[in-house]
Write a structure and sequence with these properties.
The protein is of the alpha/beta class. It is built from three helices and four strands, in the order αβαβαββ.
Protein backbone atom coordinates (compact mmCIF):
# COMPACT_ATOMS: atom_id res chain seq x y z
CA UNK A 1 0.00 0.00 0.00
CA UNK A 2 2.98 2.25 0.56
CA UNK A 3 3.64 2.01 -3.20
CA UNK A 4 0.20 3.55 -3.76
CA UNK A 5 1.06 6.51 -1.53
CA UNK A 6 -0.73 5.25 1.57
CA UNK A 7 0.64 6.05 5.03
CA UNK A 8 1.46 2.53 6.18
CA UNK A 9 4.30 0.82 8.02
CA UNK A 10 5.43 -2.74 8.40
CA UNK A 11 6.06 -3.67 12.01
CA UNK A 12 9.55 -4.92 11.17
CA UNK A 13 10.46 -1.25 10.59
CA UNK A 14 9.97 -0.64 14.32
CA UNK A 15 10.15 -3.97 16.12
CA UNK A 16 12.51 -6.90 16.14
CA UNK A 17 11.35 -10.05 14.37
CA UNK A 18 9.49 -12.52 16.60
CA UNK A 19 8.58 -9.90 19.20
CA UNK A 20 5.79 -11.33 21.41
CA UNK A 21 2.32 -10.42 20.16
CA UNK A 22 1.28 -8.53 23.34
CA UNK A 23 4.34 -6.29 22.96
CA UNK A 24 3.59 -5.76 19.27
CA UNK A 25 -0.04 -4.92 20.05
CA UNK A 26 1.05 -2.42 22.70
CA UNK A 27 3.15 -0.63 20.08
CA UNK A 28 0.33 -0.68 17.52
CA UNK A 29 -2.05 0.81 20.07
CA UNK A 30 0.37 3.43 21.40
CA UNK A 31 1.02 4.68 17.87
CA UNK A 32 -2.68 4.75 17.00
CA UNK A 33 -2.08 2.36 14.10
CA UNK A 34 -4.45 -0.32 12.87
CA UNK A 35 -3.27 -3.88 12.68
CA UNK A 36 -3.75 -5.73 9.39
CA UNK A 37 -2.96 -9.41 9.80
CA UNK A 38 -3.74 -12.90 8.56
CA UNK A 39 -3.16 -14.35 12.05
CA UNK A 40 -6.75 -14.82 13.20
CA UNK A 41 -5.54 -16.73 16.27
CA UNK A 42 -4.45 -13.45 17.90
CA UNK A 43 -8.01 -12.57 18.81
CA UNK A 44 -8.56 -15.89 20.60
CA UNK A 45 -5.45 -15.96 22.79
CA UNK A 46 -6.17 -14.43 26.22
CA UNK A 47 -3.00 -12.31 26.45
CA UNK A 48 -3.38 -10.97 22.92
CA UNK A 49 -7.11 -10.32 23.25
CA UNK A 50 -6.44 -8.46 26.49
CA UNK A 51 -3.69 -6.42 24.80
CA UNK A 52 -6.03 -5.45 21.96
CA UNK A 53 -8.52 -4.15 24.52
CA UNK A 54 -5.99 -2.54 26.86
CA UNK A 55 -4.13 -0.71 24.09
CA UNK A 56 -7.24 0.19 22.11
CA UNK A 57 -6.12 -1.55 18.92
CA UNK A 58 -8.13 -1.52 15.72
CA UNK A 59 -7.58 -4.80 13.88
CA UNK A 60 -8.40 -6.12 10.44
CA UNK A 61 -8.12 -9.88 10.04
CA UNK A 62 -7.59 -10.93 6.44
CA UNK A 63 -9.76 -13.94 5.64
CA UNK A 64 -8.86 -16.81 3.36
CA UNK A 65 -6.33 -19.54 3.89
CA UNK A 66 -3.64 -20.47 1.42
CA UNK A 67 -4.07 -17.42 -0.78
CA UNK A 68 -1.20 -16.67 -3.10
CA UNK A 69 0.64 -13.36 -2.81
CA UNK A 70 -1.17 -11.87 -5.80
CA UNK A 71 -4.53 -12.84 -4.30
CA UNK A 72 -3.59 -11.25 -0.96
CA UNK A 73 -2.63 -8.03 -2.70
CA UNK A 74 -5.93 -8.01 -4.59
CA UNK A 75 -7.84 -8.65 -1.36
CA UNK A 76 -6.15 -5.75 0.38
CA UNK A 77 -6.43 -3.28 -2.51
CA UNK A 78 -10.09 -4.16 -3.14
CA UNK A 79 -11.01 -3.59 0.51
CA UNK A 80 -8.64 -0.73 1.38
CA UNK A 81 -11.12 2.17 0.93
CA UNK A 82 -13.67 0.52 3.24
CA UNK A 83 -10.97 -0.45 5.75
CA UNK A 84 -9.85 3.19 5.92
CA UNK A 85 -13.44 4.33 6.37
CA UNK A 86 -14.07 1.83 9.17
CA UNK A 87 -10.79 2.70 10.89
CA UNK A 88 -11.70 6.38 10.89
CA UNK A 89 -15.23 6.03 12.21
CA UNK A 90 -15.14 3.00 14.53
CA UNK A 91 -14.36 3.35 18.21
CA UNK A 92 -11.39 1.27 19.30
CA UNK A 93 -10.81 -1.48 20.17
CA UNK A 94 -12.38 -3.17 17.17
CA UNK A 95 -11.94 -6.23 14.99
CA UNK A 96 -13.13 -6.75 11.43
CA UNK A 97 -12.81 -9.69 9.07
CA UNK A 98 -11.80 -8.77 5.54
CA UNK A 99 -13.21 -11.33 3.10
CA UNK A 100 -10.97 -13.15 0.63
CA UNK A 101 -13.47 -12.28 -2.12
CA UNK A 102 -15.95 -9.44 -2.31
CA UNK A 103 -16.04 -6.35 -0.13
CA UNK A 104 -18.38 -7.14 2.75
CA UNK A 105 -16.21 -6.42 5.79
CA UNK A 106 -17.86 -7.69 8.97
CA UNK A 107 -17.30 -6.83 12.60
CA UNK A 108 -16.14 -9.82 14.60
CA UNK A 109 -15.96 -10.35 18.35
CA UNK A 110 -12.69 -10.42 20.19
CA UNK A 111 -12.19 -13.68 22.05
CA UNK A 112 -11.97 -13.73 25.83
Amino acid sequence: MKGFGEDVVHLTEFLEPNVPDPEMLARVGSEGWCLVTRDDRIRYRPAESAAIREHQVGAFFMGGKNLRRCQLIQQLVRNWPRMKELAAKTRRPFAFRVPPTGTTIKSIPLGD
